Amino acid sequence: MERRQAILAAAGLLGMPVSSRSAVAAPALPDPALAERDPDKYWARIRREQFVLPEARAFMNNGSLGVAPKPVLHAVADFLHRGAAMAMPDQEYPRWGYEDMDAHRGEMAAYLGCKRDQLAFTHNATEAMSVIANGIDLRSGDEVVMTNQEHGSGKNPWFLKRARVGITVREVPIPLPPSSQDDIADRLISAIGPSTRVLFFSAITTATGLIFPVRKICDAARAKGVITVVDGAHLNGQVAARIEDLGCDYYAGSPHKWMFAPAGCGILWGREEALEKLWPVIVTGGWDNPARKAARFMSVGTNNRAIFEGMLAGVRFANAIGPERIYARIHALAREARERAEKLPFVKLLTPADDRMYGSLVTFEMSGVDPERFSKLCAERKIWTLPGTARMRVSTHIHTRRSDIETLFRTIEDARKA
Ligand SMILES: Cc1ncc(COP(=O)(O)O)c(C=O)c1O
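That is the input. Now the predicted structure with pyridoxal-5'-phosphate docked in place:
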């Protein structure tokens, strides 16, 4: 057997892609002037040259987990490869979980708009929120106020605390769609009562993609002596925002949704005084060294550092394209999806028209769409949104094409015709 055939046969047996490392090498980004001249052409090239997404796939579920572009895949594969080849420079060791990773945190902090020492890496927002809820000292009778729009990973840590410690949890209903950001802020701020110790809410809600006026809510809560915890799983990468400007005490994020990071990347942030009061949950040596600040929350044992190399490659990718350019594109696509939905008489939009109240998540309820037929058509046409028919959530990112939006709405109408 020829050598190449032998390699192909071995790769086939192992289920391995041949040349997996070279397959993820990406060419240089297109000239930004093209983005001005012919935006659709620019973004089509980004999709084709920078992602491995199949041509036929309409992927519109970044709200659950994003897709990593080639530079990220390459960084992950390359780091794993160099680790296995014992080819790391002197100071590098292929893991995290005992290290403070100052250089990595510094680069990430610059992108997120916060200080390195107040930022810890976690595996996802779920973990960060569990650490925060478990690390705040609360007693029986203390109250946590949250909205009725929270993700399970945000609310359940408080439900666990309720079962274990006897705190009370109150959920404030948010009308869908809300009339304004001020309305959302008023509802939350006025819900604060004499026993409220913590106010917890999402910067962008999970099922409905609503952008909350985080700063206004946090400032009002602080004035009442209430701790604020913000679930930012959908914020970074979707909407340009600096964590430090949000005014909250604690913050959790999931860069693997909108920031191009590989799955398994999360962040935990806290204001300096707030971090000093937070108990770590998973510990090894060093948890009681206050000089380590947020790094105390990263001592979680041996872990796969390749994903953080990938996460930083995602940050560089986003910076090279430009966060403002990314936001302008993905929000314009979301607005297009919203306007398309608005024209359908059997649709109730949950996303308000106000551009400040949504980024790249659009949600609506549909009546008269046969769920089985709809799922079948989506599978046939390779459309991937958050599964569900009564309520549809569409995510748009830089790989989303106008034709993907068109295909989705044609499919909705076809499913209804049955
Ligand atoms: C608002 C919100 N918070 C938290 C999470 C959990 O994120 P992760 O699975 O990355 O921990 C999600 C996931 O969809 C979410 O939408």
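The chain is about 45% helix and 15% strand.
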